[in-house]
UniProtKB/TrEMBL annotation:
This is Epoxyqueuosine reductase. GO terms for biological process: tRNA queuosine(34) biosynthetic process. Its main location: cytoplasm. It catalyses: epoxyqueuosine(34) in tRNA + AH2 = queuosine(34) in tRNA + A + H2O. It is an enzyme of class 1 (oxidoreductase). Its cofactor is cob(II)alamin; [4Fe-4S] cluster. Binds 2 [4Fe-4S] clusters per monomer. The active site is at residue 134. Its EC number is 1.17.99.6. Cob(II)alamin binds at residues 58, 134, 158, 169, 216, 241-242. Keywords: 4Fe-4S, Cobalamin, Cobalt, Cytoplasm, Iron, Iron-sulfur, Metal-binding, Oxidoreductase, Queuosine biosynthesis, tRNA processing. Monomer. InterPro entries: 4Fe4S_Fe-S-bd, 4Fe4S_Fe_S_CS, QueG, QueG_DUF1730.
Length: 351
């Protein structure tokens, strides 16, 4: 029996290393567009102005590319081999989000998508494709839900029956008319573990996120001083946060990622805060070459490290924080002053 074009594409995608593949029409439900608009109109996107600037293109794939007929959504597991939150119990170490402990996934997935795209254009005369990996106004999670890779959980991230919350996404827009994937059951039910796991109460309600309170947003997207109300709640998170993802019970079905390029670098699993705080710009760039962390720059990263030092209650970290009170970047210097003050307060309490 001859395989369908969908089966051939899915088979080749899995051969390339993708763990999930689905198909949907190049359109989004009204609910997804309304949710996006409400999120932006409420200001919950914070300083991420790019979300507001291309709002229409995000909500309607054909606005981005009028010729698109179908969307192929690919997922790749990045499930960690060990407890992703173990570092939270080591206050002198920094906790880096699982997705940033290895090569930049944008580069890894985009390369594989291009290989798959070459295969797809051979499936018919005049077939056209465009590939995306979180680099264009594409509403990835609603498209992944439409393609039956999973559903958007109460933490607003995608939840997969097979990979839990550990799934990186990429999309291929195509002029091919493809049959949408069959619906798959799955839901969060009455579970609220992801909501209660959030240290900063970033979820006003189930299925709603206020990015301005999210540690991932604060440590990655937010450019100025981190608001004082959130600093003690950040613990030793220095780049991103996995607390809500790690709490998901569906993760029990996830197997450790089989993609070797997504295997965590040993030096990024539990790096010492003191060593990170001493990074100058060249050392920062060298350490995080090929890593998504590099894009936020040394100053923003060291700011995060200093917040973690202030939360560490470790007086041995006070000297490095004191040195950085003279840093040339005013945001770094202010974070260092805060860290010195917090460590001093803790030392006084212990006397």
């Amino acid at each position: 029996m001859k395989k369908s074009v969908e089966d051939r594409i899915a088979e080749h995608a899995r051969h390339l290393g993708f763990d999930a593949v689905g198909f949907c029409r190049a359109e989004l439900p009204d609910e997804a567009r309304a949710r996006l608009r409400e999120f932006v109109e409420a200001g919950r996107h914070g300083t991420m102005g790019w979300m507001e600037q291309r709002l229409d293109q995000r909500g309607e794939p054909k606005t981005l590319w009028p010729e698109v007929r179908s969307v192929i959504v690919l997922g790749m597991s990045y499930a960690p081999a060990a407890d992703p939150l173990a570092t939270l119990r080591q206050p002198d170490r920094g906790n880096i989000s699982v997705y940033a402990r290895h090569r930049d996934y944008h580069d890894v997935i985009k390369g594989l998508l291009k290989h798959l795209a070459q295969f797809i254009v051979k499936q018919g005369d005049g077939v056209e494709v465009k590939v995306f990996v979180d680099t264009a106004p594409v509403l990835e999670k609603p498209l992944a839900e439409a393609a039956q890779l999973g559903w958007q959980g109460k933490h607003t991230n995608l939840v997969s029956r097979d990979e839990g919350s550990w799934l990186l996404l990429g999309e291929i827009y195509t002029t091919l008319e493809l049959t949408p994937s069959e619906p798959r059951a799955g839901s969060c039910g009455s579970c609220t573990r992801c909501l209660t796991a959030c240290p900063t109460d970033a979820f006003p309600a189930p299925y709603q996120l206020d990015a301005r309170r999210c540690i991932s947003y604060l440590t990655i997207e937010h450019t100025g001083p981190i608001p004082n109300e959130f600093r003690p709640l950040m613990g030793n998170h220095i780049y991103g946060c996995d607390d809500c993802l790690a709490a998901c019970p569906w993760n029990r079905f996830a197997q450790a990622s089989r993609q070797t390029k997504l295997t965590a670098r040993p030096d990024l699993i539990a790096p010492k805060l003191e060593e990170l705080a001493r990074l100058d710009d060249p050392a920062f760039r060298a350490l995080f070459s090929g890593s998504p962390i590099k894009r936020i720059g040394r100053n923003r990263f060291v700011r995060n490290v200093l917040i973690a030092i202030g939360n560490s209650a470790d007086p041995a970290l006070s000297p490095v924080a004191m040195e950085l009170t003279q840093d040339s970047d005013p945001v770094v210097a202010e974070a260092a002053q805060w860290a010195v003050q917090k460590l001093g307060e803790k030392a006084t309490c212990l006397q």
